[in-house]
Structures are given as C-alpha cells and as structure tokens.
Amino acid sequence: MNIQWYPGHMAKAKRLIKDNLTLVDVVIEIIDARVPISSRNPDVDELIGSKPKLMVLNKADLSDPIINKQWQTFLEEHKADNIFINSISGQGINQVLKKIEKIMQEKLDRLVQKGRKNRPIRCMIIGIPNVGKSTFINKVVGRASAKTGNRPGVTQGKQWIKISEKIDLLDTPGILWPKFEDPKIGLKLAWIGSIKDDILDQEELAFNLIKFLTEQYPKLLEDRYKIQIKHKEALEVFTDIATKRGNIVKGGEPDYTRTAEMLLEEFRKGKIGKISLEMPDPVEI
C-alpha cells in the first residue's frame, strides 16, 4: 500500500513550530502508545534541537500493557523523559505536569535568583494528527479549550492556553512528513487513523490489519468475532468475520467494504483488545 501524505497545512505547521520554538521552555511530544516509532515525526528532533522534551505516550489504555512496560524500560535506559497516559480518563495527566516542573526546576531557580518570580513555564505541544493532542489539552485544562475530533487535521493553527499560574501551553497543528520511506509506517498510521480514510483503500487496509492480528494477537480476533483462525489465510479470516457479523450482499457474497469499515473502527476504539503494533527494537529505532 503506497501512502504519500503531505498537505499544504502540514508544511505550514512545520514552519510555525520552528518559528515559535524560541518562545517555549519545554516541548511535549504526544505519541500514540500503540506505535511509538511510527507516530514520531522524524523531523522533530532536528526541529527542536537541544530544547528539553517530554515524550507523552497517549492512548496507553488501547495498547498492550506488557509492551508498554517494555517501552518504558527502553526509553528510561536511553534517558528519554516519558509518561504513559490516557487523555480520556485523565490517567497520567498529573504526572505530566509534575514532570514538566521537574524538568524546568533548575531554570526556574535561576530566574528567581535574577528577580523573575512566578514566570510560567511555556510548553509547546507537538505530534502527528490524531494522537490525541487536543484531548490531552482539554483534560489538562478541564474544559474544551482545543477543538477535538476523530479525524486528522482538526487543529489548524496555533493557540496559547493557560493551564495554571505555573504552566502555559502552545498548541500546534499535527504534522506528518513528506514521504514514508518504510511502507509499514504508513500502514500503521493508517490503522490508527492518522491518515484520512478517504484517500485509502479501506478493504486493503483491513486485510493487512487482519494479517498482522492473526500473527500477533490471534486469540483477541477469535474472542471478538467468535471465529477460529488456526491454519487459515487472512482472506479466509476476513470472510469469516464478514459472515459472523452478517455483512452479506446479494448473492450471499461477503460485504468486504462494510466489514473493513467495522474492523478498523473497532480496532481504533480498542474493542478488539489492547494491541501494540510496535515493540522496542533498537535496530528498527
């Protein structure tokens, strides 16, 4: 599946981030916990340079808890500040705020010595589309300050949001990058909904997801759709799911389009189960 995606507003977003970095103290990079590699824009590290950064792995409630622990260990070993959160429930949000204050403590102490008291910490929120930046901000603030949506590209411009007397947040639009060198990255981002569905073949997308799940999470597929998948090819599993859900067209043929839409929606909402698409492989990273 060849996926290329770089609309004009994403190029503009990249410039916006670069132009506003001098205004902020800390960068908060929101990542999808199911795909910690693929949901990181490879341009980010170059963009922010030596600016302090906190990696916030969102949607940890949808990812495999065992693999979450592996990622946490891996990131800590590599001295990367990180916190796993669930923006919808608010789990981990307070830890993020405390971590920001800890990262900035030395700088704040220096400012106090210079007579600059009560200066808020300025944070920039960055991340690719649909990783939950706006939901995170809304949970932190406690009100609907940022637009949210289940489709990529909802946040179109920058906006400053006051979290407390201690912290200000600068929200930015989600940015992808010009080309996916590895087609698997584009595929994973399409699965989690970071690429608009209307530019993709939903049946092919769902077929590839079924291939992955039959290899990595067969029991979850069997339990969710009440099917047996042992010794079956992905197309057979796709057909069984369509049949079990009653997605049949005239002539008794499986409705693969309808089944694909259902499967992708249920995966994204965590109804199939807690699934991670990537493990901390140092070679791949």
UniProtKB/TrEMBL annotation:
Annotated keywords: Cytoplasm, GTP-binding, Nucleotide-binding
Gene Ontology CC entries for this record: cytoplasm
Top-level taxon of the source organism: Bacteria
Subcellular location: Cytoplasm
CDD domains: YlqF (cd01856)
Single Gene Ontology BP annotation: translation
Binding annotation for GTP: 58-61, 86-87, 130-135, 174
Domain CP-type G: 13-178
GO molecular function: GTP binding; GTPase activity
Keyword presence, tRNA-binding: no
Coiled-coil regions listed in the entry: none
UniProt similarity note: Belongs to the TRAFAC class YlqF/YawG GTPase family. MTG1 subfamily.
Function, in words: Required for a late step of 50S ribosomal subunit assembly. Has GTPase activity.
Protein name, as recorded: Ribosome biogenesis GTPase A
Organism of this sequence: Irregularibacter muris
